[in-house]
Amino acid sequence: MTFKSSIELLAFHNVAYSIYAFLIISIIAWFGYNLTRKEKAKSVVRIPFYTYIAFLVIGGVGHHIFTYNTIPWVSEDITRHEIKPDATYNFEITKHKWKLPAKQIVIQCGQKVLFNVKSNDLVYGFGLFRQDGSMVMQMQVNPGSRNDILWTFLHNGEFDLMSTEYSGPHQYDENGNDLMKVKKLVKVVGCKEDGGNK
Amino acid sequence: MSLIQNLINGTNFDHKSLNALQKVTLRAVVMSFLFFGLVAIEGMIMRLVQAHAPIPNQFYHPEHYFSIMTVHPIVGIFGSTYQLVFAAFMFLVPFLTKKPLYSVKLANCVWLLITIGTALAWLSAFFTHYAPLYTLYWPLPADTDQFNLIGGIVFIIGVALIMIGTLGFIYNIYATIFARVGVHKDKTTKELLISGFGIDGMLNLWNKLIGKQPYSKEPALALPVVAIFRGTVDTFLDAIVILGAGILVLIYLIFDASGHPLNVASIDALLYKNFFWWGLDLVADGLVLIYVAGSWYLLATLITGQKLFMENVARAALMLELLVSWMVWSHHLLGDQGQPEMMKLISGEMVTAFELLTQGLALFITLVTLWKARPLKMTMELKYLLGGLVGFGLAIPAAIIQADMGMNRVLHNTQWIIMAHVHIALIVGLYMTLYSALYVLWPIVTNNTKMFSSKLSNAHFWLYLIGGIGMGAFGGMAGLDGMLRRHLYVHGEFNTYMVLAAICGSMVLIAWFIFLFNIVMSVGIKGLIGIFLPAEDKSASYGIEPESVAQNHK
């Protein structure tokens, strides 16, 4: 099982967390109801203490093992300095203004692209978003330190660039429009309709 | 009795019958709930902006919007939550240890300092739009191109006063715990320290494993006091870090004001982030979780009248939580590419996952303690306690999901963490626990004052529970769809979720009005004013025979 994009990943977690939320609310409600009853409640299932503890440990650690093995960008991110990118794009930010490498960046499907961002003053963010507003990926951009991210695009699309970190009200105009938003900066081409290389 | 008479005189509340400890507790409680109202209104303003509601244009201005966002957590966490928690603990420690509070004067200074500090921070944001947000990411708080310099100085002084008040609380708590009077007359400092850190519980468990007699059959400190003791360690460290960051910002602002600005690049932004998050995270992952666990244990034992299930494990877990809370801050820096990968992996992921264990353990112990005592009457305190358990049951896994390098890449700084985790943890988890404590302590602190209406109490409970969970859930869903948390959306981009979140948020606000009305009708306006008048009875303790109090004061 591998998640091809953040949409698949987040949809999965949305369902998984919703089921969990429904369960925990139901369990506490059932528990509260039975606390007040005189007759002894029948346990639906008996969970020994150490099984419960083991479940918590496995849940906490297992979550990371699961994501490491199913989310492609985790291992790529950790080992990005050993991977030779197909293309590198350098960005700079000064006083809420981007210095972009090109007016539009066109990326071929499956290319490993390194985004390297430098801030000359404040803490900003670097995030790419689909046209429906959902996030493709993001990183923080700190002044004085390395801010690079290696990314492999597996879906066609045009993506907006936004600063994902608040850097003061000068990021916006008087009416609240985001001055750091760059519409359709990144364009990915050459992927199959359901994702992946043709 | 007519409503007007009730409003003026309350039910049977007599402020003159309260002693100094009861009065100082109630003063902080009153201020806490007033600040809660303010924070709920601020939250609703932000929700309405995000829902693109037809409200005055000024709320859509970025300066105004972000100044609200800056003071919202200051008022909520320090002005309201800190005050309520400090009030409860400055009453509970003397009550549980059967010793007088070290100093009522200091307790009065604490609520005054926090109130004045919060008010100053709020006023600076309101009048000058100083808005670096609570994260104070360097060098934004010192950016005088964007912010008013005087506003910045006033804001930082406000935060510093809150922290000084916090240090006052810490001193009062430890001075009370370590006072060798009453039941602790013959205890040594070492014994109190061992018990305070939960080491006795750990040694008891170890001795049981190797077949030896328990290290301590009667621990020096009751379990809730151990939790307060432990959580207060983190409160101290957190206060020092925030105070340190405040002093740094203040130095830069003062030099700027003198016409000799310092170079902001001298401070490494990432290192500062590590320092600041280490301290700030001690609030979220340290004192809140530990104080809450302690409160659950206390409430479970008071509601059931029975001993806590697995008390030694609970004591040892509090010790474990100490170590965990000091090592988890990197989960806030998973999106920072300059942060060493090892720190992300160990501190950000692995140690953070332990919170699932420690909080899961607290949940388990509390539930079993309640279960063993059934049948129980579904009192208000029990309802709120169950609500608190639901809140943390929802909020902790929501955070663990994001404290992961893969998930963080697509969730960092979205509404997921602030709504599905932080707001549910605070509004539902923490506040429901605190409401439970309030209902338990109400007859003790007010000398058996009758609550005006149980129907209103119930209305508050359900509106608050459904509104709190609903607001967090819809905000969280918006986060999954890419909505950022520290961003201004003025084109109705996530309108459906935000309208639903605003409806649920308004339920929380209405719940607060109902709660406040119920309390005011119970104590009356005369009583409310009387709380702030000097107490005739200067006792700094509750439930101790006059003789032992006199001895204690010798």
Helices and strands in order, then pairings?
The complex is a heterodimer of chains A (198) and B (554).
Chain A lengths: L5 H30 L13 H22 L1 H7 L8 E8 L2 E3 L5 E4 L3 E8 L4 E6 L5 E7 L6 E5 L4 E6 L19 E8 L9
Parallel strand pairs in A: 1-4, 3-9
Antiparallel strand pairs in A: 1-2, 4-7, 5-6, 5-8, 8-9
Chain B lengths: L2 H7 L10 H31 L11 H36 L6 H25 L20 H30 L10 H8 L2 H11 L13 H35 L11 H36 L6 H15 L15 H32 L7 H23 L2 H7 L3 H31 L8 H27 L14 H37 L14 H8 L1
Descriptive overview:
The complex is a heterodimer of chains A (198) and B (554). Chain A has 198 residues and is of the alpha+beta class. The two termini of chain A are 20 Å apart. Chain A has a 5-stranded mixed beta sheet, with no helix packed on it. Chain A has a 4-stranded mixed beta sheet with strand order 2-1-4-7. Chain A is built from 3 helices and 9 strands. Chain A folds into 2 domains: 6-70; 82-189, Cupredoxins -  blue copper proteins (Immunoglobulin-like, Sandwich), CATH 2.60.40. In chain A, a hairpin with a 2-residue loop joins strand 1 (87-94) and strand 2. The mean pLDDT of chain A is 93. Chain B has 554 residues and is mainly α. Chain B has one domain (3-186, 222-553): Up-down Bundle (Cytochrome C Oxidase, Chain A), CATH 1.20.210.10. Helix content of chain B is 72%, strand content 0%. Chain B is built from 17 helices and no strands. The relative contact order of chain B is 0.13. Mean pLDDT of chain B is 93; it is low at 547-554. At the A-B interface, helix 1, helix 2, helix 3, strand 5 and strand 6 of A face helix 3, helix 9, helix 11, helix 12 and helix 13 of B.
